[in-house]
Amino acid sequence: MQITVVGQGYVGLPLAIAAADAGFKVFGLDLNQERITLLSRGISLIEDLNDEAVLRNLKSKNYEPTTNPKTINQSEIVLICVPTPITNDNKPDLEALISATTTVGRNLKAETLVIVESTIEPGTCRNILLPIMLKESGLKLGEFEIAYSPERIDPTNKKWGIRNTPKLVAGLTDNATKRAEEFYEKFIESIIICSSLEIAETAKLLENTFRLVNISFINELAIFCQKMGIDITEVISAAATKPYGFMPFYPGVGVGGHCIPVDPLYLAHAAKSIGAPTRLIDLADQINQEMPGYFVGRAEEKISGLKNKKVLVVGVSYKPNVADVRESPVESLITGLKQKGAQVSWHDDLVKVWNGEESVALSSDFDLAIIATPHDYLDLLKLGNVPILNTRGSI
Ligand SMILES: NC(=O)c1ccc[n+]([C@@H]2O[C@H](COP(=O)([O-])OP(=O)(O)OC[C@H]3O[C@@H](n4cnc5c(N)ncnc54)[C@H](O)[C@@H]3O)[C@@H](O)[C@H]2O)c1
């Protein structure tokens, strides 16, 4: 069976390769020519998907990276995995999704199953994407199928990957649900059927909002523990021995990435549009935004002022062991330090170049090092006697 995966990023690429490994002929469609050229040479672009997996499927011809949307017309299943960021005023930015859906609609043939994987607010599939596909394809309702299946991938998670993380699936019709289930069960162990598109859409937002709220809570508790001289890491370890009713979350400079800081705002936007309260989400977002500033204050305290001090920020991506800097809170941390007059450099061998600046070597030539994102490869001994502020603890 031929399928097209629209968007070959953190979500679409591993999905395309997993489906290709399962024997599907997969077209990996992306607008970004450079990305497609690299993929065609067998270069993975994603930390936890090795080049060998891409090369293997290029060789077997099960995977074909392309910029040509005509592949949609040759596919029985089309999956949409394009970004869903937020605008500067915190509203859902559906530009990429609407553009991809328009392309899918224009090239859609009858009987195709379109599965949306991008994270969206409830009602988006039914009220926005389906009408676009109907209009652009000229097909009638019932002549093609639509389903929603949110992606839960957690880049670099060694325990839970695409194959063993249960997959939520909901179709507009029973037939769409059945076809989506039959597709995913070829390479995913557990498929969970939701009774409507909106249940699956909302479940994804609940999952990520749950994380933001709890991480903001633990960050607030870490501030309290710091003021009390209590080690938050030990507090969490102790609490986590409770076998029920507790799940550990860990403090840091704030959440980042394309999902955790963004998805709750999709939920808040949906709630506000119908007058439902969003107090916890708003507060969690506010605490998250304030964390970099809190650490600027801690840095200032630790070395008695920042003016003209040489500060090294260690790790700038949004989480350890990835090169992804989208929504990274480290950007605000660096801006805040500079505003206080510090001479800020940063080290991150995974990111290398960012915002027109380059990663510098770890060395003892600094007045302070701030551990923002602790990648596994870091050898902190290279910092010698430089005082360290660790954003992951409270001491
Ligand atoms: N990154 C994650 O960890 C993660 C996890 C779960 C869910 N999600 C969700 O999955 C979706 C995709 O996120 P991502 O992280 O994979 O994004 P990404 O930026 O890594 O990849 C998206 C790709 O889509 C391409 N693209 C954009 N518009 C296109 C179009 N019109 N046609 C073809 N290609 C197009 C881009 O060039 C890019 O290569 C988002 O809705 C996100 O919220 C992401």
From TrEMBL:
Residues 312-391 form the UDP-glucose/GDP-mannose dehydrogenase C-terminal domain. GO terms for biological process: polysaccharide biosynthetic process. Gene3D superfamilies: NAD(P)-binding Rossmann-like Domain. SUPFAM superfamilies: 6-phosphogluconate dehydrogenase C-terminal domain-like, NAD(P)-binding Rossmann-fold domains, UDP-glucose/GDP-mannose dehydrogenase C-terminal domain. The keyword Oxidoreductase applies. The keyword Cell membrane does not apply. Keywords: NAD, Oxidoreductase. GO terms for molecular function: NAD binding; oxidoreductase activity, acting on the CH-CH group of donors, NAD or NADP as acceptor; oxidoreductase activity, acting on the CH-OH group of donors, NAD or NADP as acceptor. Belongs to the UDP-glucose/GDP-mannose dehydrogenase family. NCBIfam families: NDP-sugDHase. This is UDP-N-acetyl-D-glucosamine dehydrogenase.
